[in-house]
Design a protein that fits this description.
This protein has a single domain, classed as Jelly Rolls (Sandwich). The two termini are 18 Å apart. It is globular, with a radius of gyration of 12 Å. It is built from one helix and six strands. β3 and β4 form a beta hairpin. Strands 1, 2, 3, 4, 5 and 6 form a six-stranded antiparallel β-sheet that branches. By secondary structure, it is mostly beta strands.
């Protein structure tokens, strides 16, 4: 998985989600816009983070955040009880 570039700055974040409030759109194939990076930050539990270009599956937890590259299709799947948010950078 890639790292956030050194030159990007956080500009917003989502509300905190759990396994029942997770927007359905995040469970399906979606992407960020050109120039927008994301960081999936887990507070509790585990998520399966699937990057679809090229295919890669990563298990995220409180010690392992997920990096979302601009325009790369991806999706998440909660693995039981979970709490997380996504921070956006550009």
């Amino acid at each position: 998985m890639k790292s956030l570039p050194d030159n990007v700055v956080a500009y917003k974040k989502t509300p905190e989600f759990d396994e029942s409030s997770l927007p359905k759109g995040l469970l399906n194939n979606h992407q960020t816009k050109e120039g927008v990076w994301g960081k999936i930050i887990l507070l509790e539990g585990k998520l399966l983070y699937t990057i679809n270009e090229p295919k890669e599956e990563i298990y995220l937890d409180a010690n392992n955040s997920g990096v979302v590259e601009p325009t790369v299709y991806h999706q998440v799947k909660p693995l039981g009880k979970v709490r997380f948010y996504v921070e956006f950078y550009r």
